[in-house]
Amino acid sequence: MSKKPKAVATMKQLISHLLGFCWLVCFTGTQCFTSDDDMCQYSTTCPSFATCENITTGYHCTCKRGYISSSLEEHFTNPAVKCVVDRCQDSSTCPAFATCENVAGGYHCTCKRGFASSSGKQNFTDPTVKCIDVNECSQDPPVCGPHNQCNNTRGSFTCQCSPGYSSPSGTSWKPGDSHTLDCTENLISCQPRILQRDDFKSLCGNSTQHGNQQNNRFCTFLNETSKTLESACGNGNQSISLKEVSTSIDLLFYATAQQSNGSKEEVALVATIFLQSVESAALATARKSPGNKTQTITGETMTIVAQRVTDNCSRAGKMIELNAENELMSIDCMTVVGAREQGSGVVAFISYATLESILNNNFIDQQNLREDVKLGSTMLNSKVVSGTIGKPGPLSKPFNFTLEHKQKKEMEDKIICVFWNLTGPWFTEGCRLLRENSTHTTCTCNHLSSFAILMASHAIKAVL
């Protein structure tokens, strides 16, 4: 039973207080407390679901766990304040990816950054409302800068430099990162991709440029290739024409031809190095050329056509067509510059005069051709060509090439579109026949490499 408050009930007591130091005058029928009272001893001091605590300046009330004050104060003394159920203590009050906030008179839910409510309202209490991921990558203007690719993630997004571009601070960025992403165009390396692999770097010691294994025919070839590429590509940003590099490339071809009497594996490797070297030199030269000018040079061993694209593909569906000695290449402009880029790109198409004599029938394996019929005599029936944009991997859109037959196709002959695999054999994967006649064939491929036309005479029977 709680203790009743002290009441000043007689005139004598009242006078005594007035003559001394008066704290409080209390009239009959009311509750009043003197300064030496323990306020927390009275059950009515704090509301239900609250605890009372005496402090030096008096007391205060605090709502128990699971409750919150109607004034949103942690501690209070106002007798009008109540302790109400804290709805935000229950994790199911708001949907996934939302925060719960207590407000005067109740609560509301708010979707976290990167999410939006299905009702379209910023704050809500409706239990049927969900928080849906916002696809920042579809926003206009784009959330990522120029030469960036946007990748939407749950509740956020990342920006990544487009192929052929890089940033000093790294190649990706996400909200909250302290660094910025300033993607600039990479200079194309003149070194063939295959020689950048660690196993080839160690093949001839620490450097292929110093001729540290002159007795090794292959390493000697690598030395000559490296020197030739240095001459072909030049230094810095100085403009170089394809005409200036054609002599060096011809010398590289002759060095390659000298290796053709080696083993099948050696010839395949040397040919791959040669093909990638020519592609790299052509791209590096085109990268340094001004404007959208197409450069064409015909040398003793090949014809190179290269173009730099700087107009951001002025219209949708624009095709870039290159003609090298009546061999044709057609590629979508956006494939060259990148689908979301505001910048430029380069493309090169090379037709080799006699390379098919090196990459000959010895490198045709019918198991790699994936044909549903058993083929008769099979031969290379075109020049070897290369197409490159300096970016590895599958293309956003297939490209087409048209090659002239070295030997007229007869009705019963079968045409096969093939590409040169790094390890040697001719493969068909990713390429298919688009159209043909007796003198020309058009193929379409979803990747870039070096290509040729095979002709098989007399497909003799179905493979069981």
From TrEMBL:
**GO biological process terms, semicolon-separated:** adenylate cyclase-activating G protein-coupled receptor signaling pathway
Q: What is its main location?
A: membrane
Q: How does it sit in the membrane?
A: Multi-pass membrane protein
Q: Which residues form the EGF-like domain?
A: 36-73, 84-121, 133-171
| UniProt keyword list | Cell membrane, Disulfide bond, EGF-like domain, G-protein coupled receptor, Glycoprotein, Membrane, Receptor, Repeat, Signal, Transducer, Transmembrane, Transmembrane helix
> Where is the protein localized?
Cell membrane
Query: Record's Pfam families?
Result: EGF_CA, GPS
> Which residue numbers delimit the GAIN-B domain?
300-461
Signal peptide, first to last residue: 1-32
Q: Which Gene3D superfamilies match?
A: 2.60.220.50, Laminin (2.10.25.10)
Q: What is the name attached to this protein's record?
A: Uncharacterized protein
Task: Say which species the protein is native to.
Answer: Mauremys mutica
